[in-house]
Amino acid sequence: MNLDALYTYVLNSIALLQPEVIVTIGLLGVLIIDLFTPKSMHKWSAGVFLGVMVLALISLSGQSGVQASVFFGMIAVDGYAVFFKYLFLVSAILATLITLFSDEMDRNGRRFGDYFIVMAGLVLGMMLMAGANNLLMMFISIELVSLASYILVSYLKDEKTSNEAGVKYIIYGAFSSGLMIYGISLIYGITGTLSISEINEVLKNPAVVIDPVTLTIAVLLTLGGFGYKIAAAPFHFWAPDAYEGAPTPVAAFLSVGPKAAGFAMMLRFFKTIFFGTSTPEGYQILDNIDWVSILAAVSVLTMTIGNVTALWQQNVKRMLAYSSIAHAGYILMGVILLSDSGIAAMMFYLAYYLIMNLGVFFTAMLIADKVQSFELDDWRGMGFRAPVLAIPMVIFLASLIGIPGTVGFAGKFLLFVAVLQQGSLYFWLALIAVANSVVSAFYYFKVVKMMYLKKPVENADGPISVSIPATVLVFVFAVPTIVLGLWWQPLYNWALASVRMLVG
Amino acid sequence: MILSGLIFIPMIIALLMIVVPKEKTAVFRWGAILASVIQLALVAILVQNYDLTKAGINEAAGYQFVENYSWIKVSAGSYGILDISYTLGIDGLSLPMLILTAFVGLIGVISSFSIEKYIKGYFISYLILLSAMTGVFAALDFFLFYLFWEMMLIPMYFLIGIWGGPRREYAAIKFFLYTFIGSLLMLLVIIGLYFSYVTNPGAAPEDMIHSFNMITMMNQGNLVAGSLLSVEHWRHVAFILMFLGFAVKIPMFPFHTWLPDAHVEAPTPISVILAGVLLKMGTYGLVRVLWPIFPESVLYFAWLIALFGVINILYGALTAMGQTDLKKLIAYSSISHMGFVLLGLASLTTEGTMGAMVQMFSHGIISAMLFLVVGVIYDRAHHRDIDGFGGLAKQMPVYAGITLFAFFASLGLPGLSGFVAEALVFMGGFSQPVTQNLTIIATLGMLITAIYYLWTYQKVFTGELNPKYTGLTEINSRELTMMTALGVSILLVGIYPSSLTDLMTVSVNHLNDLVKSAGTVMVGLN
Predict the structure, then answer these.
(1) Which of A108, A256, A338, B159 would you label with B329, given CA atoms 20 to 30 Å apart?
(2) Is the pLDDT of residue A502 over 90?
């Protein structure tokens, strides 16, 4: 390739990464603007950040139908990646709005600028994760997201819990990164390439003999990195501590954005490397290793540990952390099926999970800001003290349980559809998920019980007033939770259309 | 549109109530009355225009007042087309249930006037519950059916949990979890059915329309060859799972334990709704979906269903005999009476099925009346201990008479609706070899029922008046109105059963024919 051709190629690649470029420029823009504005105007950086996100969304809307590989196969720009990039941008916008309502962040008294710089870095990392087609690129983007997350989790540097959360997060993160990079090095050693589609070619080649034990170990180690990002058992231990200590808007964002990115990447990894020509019935597994059983075990373990541990929790934030672990377990059901409908169900669930989980975190944050506590006991009688918050809270919790008429049900329904589409093969998995849903109903309704069935705390101040903008934002989450739960045809169509990934 | 109106008017009124300030209690009370009266009027229109010659069940053309709109339709490539529609329609099985819902719903609203706490929230929950129950009885799309089925969970949780008795928290979550696990099992079967039936069998896989329409699933010609539910043992598994989902609601022994708790803790109007309408959702589910969709499993398990029916009858009656709490006694008698429905349905004869259907209606109004009777005394004496009264007939003669009437109705006195139902069930059960012996045992249940009701009446109403209760006031006009309405209906069905059975005859016969013919054909499938 001569220099001119190279030049054109790079330019074309950059053009296809326009949304990422916008986010990068935005990152620098927030940095510069923050330097030159007086402290009284520091909330402007949020406005700039929101503007950048909207611009990126607009640019992203021009990418429908693109199927391209850029920078020599490093990054894929395909419908699958675009779908996830939409999720990341939308969740970043919503998380920013949540941040603006947070007392915690206000009390902190720091400038917002650095927060949004890191946030932009996180969004950039997630967008790269969705498209990464090369093991090295995967590792770098996952690290970018992780580093940004560490900073955000420990953002309240004057608070002990926030610092503790950050440290725990970093230690677990460093460990998982180590596992992952070791796994990647083994894979590279076996196959001689880092490009996941080339690895696929090598595995398909009957002339190459590969030791299945080494390969299994290598992939299990790599799985450690993904498992950490999506907080799947046994890599979930960081999540409750990090979520509990982190500022609530950050916890909310971590539970939807990076988690979705982790799923996006994990699925691309497995699907591209191990599954050859796709057939409607599923994907053919190339080697003799039973990935499906391994992942099914992870799925069952994750949902069960998440739900059962959540039963004991008395702190709402911690309970929501376990609940988000459990939901990762449900979503994994879609991953292991390795069928188009399974993947679509996973994407669909992640999109709907975003709405309800941001909603539940936001509402919980507003309630906690009023009573200065996430302890369940202090939420007694909230249904009568602050009905504008308690009623949406019930809606979100019902949705997390999966009561029909909510987005949570639509998501779970489509997961079950995908599972049972395989006939009786995974029937047991569906039954375990059912049992888990029932368990989850118990602890989610513990919150409802506290809010409605218990008398308010003795020295409570009576009714709580909630500002109009906060109420509006709560309903921005609550109304779609019901409306989209009854009308999910467009999103499901979109997810189905975005299933096909770029291979090669 | 009339069915949609019937379903959604309570909900619309409930949504309007949200903006009304909570101090305006009259608005909520009379708003709920308005919703119920409109429902009753719409049901009257349905009955007026109902064509008695149409059967329904598995014939789409046999349904009346049909509404059908496409709701969600997604083409999933080689998996075919996912088709969910908003389909409503009624036949002879659903019409009596709609009458019951609207009627008992109105009684419940009137009875709710005694609620003093958080009136706004109460009536909003109540009306949403009413919408959900009505929806279950009119839905013909399984997805829609499931939506309504689950929609009642949350309002019911609040109604028991906020307005209930001392152990309300426990009762509310128990009710919630029992129902929830049952309905999730049902959901799995619904999805299995959805994969196994298509509206256009024989089409290429990608053109197959997988529909949630119940009628599609009732016609075995629509079964996709090689699909999950074309395998006999999986059909039996599916039948059992879905049966469990309904059994929790009926409630069938051993899944009944939520019922005594829920009944005892719930406020009177909610007990009325619970026993009057909610339990019928379970048995309605059996005849609406399970019997026509899995006819061969019904034939296969008929003896088992009858056995559980008889266990319900005897267990419920014997446990009722041991109760000291009047409300708990009636709760267990509900379990006993719902056993007759199972026995009747298992017999698969015209008499048996008709008896079961009449029992559903009759138990609905009788148990509503019984719970009101308990409510009256509880409001005045603030306890329900059977041994704690005595001689009340002297103090409250009218009330004593009404109670006697309700007790007699429940124990199956000829001339009242309970007798018609139980006699039909016995006739049906006895005529079939499968259920014959069990039916003979079941007659014991009637005897035990008579014993515990008469004992209870004796303890509470006869003898010397307990001096503690000389100040009790006689039943008031609001209570009397409700009792009279229910009593007249019980008497009407008892003396002139055709007023009810005529609505159902064609459908019931069609259902039995369908189960017997399709079930026999399908045995040995695969």
Answers:
(1) B159
(2) no
Structure confidence by residue, pLDDT tens digits, B8-67:
999 999 999 988 888 888 888 899 999 999 999 999 999 999 888 888 888 888 898 989
For B37, counting Cβ atoms within 10 Å of its Cβ (0-12 exposed, 13-18 middle, 19+ buried), the class is: middle
Residue type for position B375 = G
Cα–Cα distance for residue pair A127/A120, rounded to 1 Å: 11
Longest Cα–Cα distance in chain A: 79
List of residues 6+ apart from A235 with CB closer than 8 A: A172, A176, A224, A227, A228
Distance of CA A123 to the CA centre of its chain: 11
- A-to-B residue pairs, Cβ atoms closer than 8 angstroms: 91
Tell me the three state secondary structure of residue B74.
strand
Mean pLDDT across A411-439: 86
Pick the residue from chain A with its C-alpha nearest to B168: A453
Q: Which structural domain range is residue B408 located in?
A: 294-526
Alpha carbon distances (Å) from B478 to B111, B203, B305, B389, B481: 8, 61, 41, 23, 5
Continuous segment of H or E residues that includes residue A278: strand A275-279
- What residues in A contact B151, CB-CB < 8 Å? 404-405
How far is residue A70's CA from residue A53's CA, in Å, rounded to a whole number? 22
Chain B environment of A341 (Cβ under 8 Å) = 76, 79
Four-CA torsion A198, A200, A202, A204, nearest 10 degrees = -140
Residue B457 lies in a domain: yes
Contact list in B for residue A438 (CB cut-off 8 A) is 177, 180-181, 184
Residues B494/B415, Cβ–Cβ less than 8 Å: yes
Return all residues near B366 (Cβ < 8 A) that are at least 6 apart: B337, B406, B409, B410, B417, B418, B486, B490
In a domain, B178, yes or no: no
pLDDT reading at A424 higher than 80: no
Q: If you write DSSP's letter for every residue of B343-412 in order, what string do you get?
A: HHHHHTSHHHHHHHHHHHHHHHHHHHHHHHHHHHHHHHHS--BGGG---HHHH-HHHHHHHHHHHHHHHT
Query: Which runs of E-coded beta strand occur in B48-151?
Result: 64-75, 81-90
Report the domain count for chain B.
1
Q: Is B164 helix (H, G, I), strand (E, B) or coil?
A: coil
Q: Which residues of B touch A430 (CB under 8 A)?
A: 188
Q: What phi and psi, each to the nearest 5 degrees, are found at residue A285?
A: -90, 130
How long a stretch of residues is chain B?
526
Conformational region of residue A380, where left means phi above 0, alpha means psi within -120 to 50, and beta covers everything else: beta
Q: What share of chain B is helix, strand, coil (3-state, %, to 5)?
A: 75, 5, 20
pLDDT at B26: 87
Mean pLDDT of A396-411: 91
Q: CA geometry: angle at A130 spanning A184 and A6, to 5°?
A: 80
Contact B118/A487, CB-based, under 8 Å?
no
B323 occurs within a structural domain: yes
Spatial separation of the C-alpha atoms in residues A396 and A65, rounded to whole Å: 34
Picking from B77, B79, B184, the nearest residue to A437 by CB comes out as B184
* Residue B305 C-alpha, separation from nearest chain A C-alpha, in angstroms: 24
Residues B275/B367, Cβ–Cβ less than 8 Å: yes
Contacts of B234 in chain A (CB under 8 A): 424
Strand pairing partners for B87?
Answer: B68
Q: Name the 3-class secondary structure at B82.
A: strand
What gap in Å lies between CA B384 and CA A296, rounded to an integer? 53
Best mutation target among B129, B153, B191 (most A Cβ atoms within 10 Å) is B191
CB within 8 Å: A280 and B154 = no
For A398, the closest of B118, B149, B154 (CB atoms) is B154
Domain for residue B330, yes or no?
Answer: yes
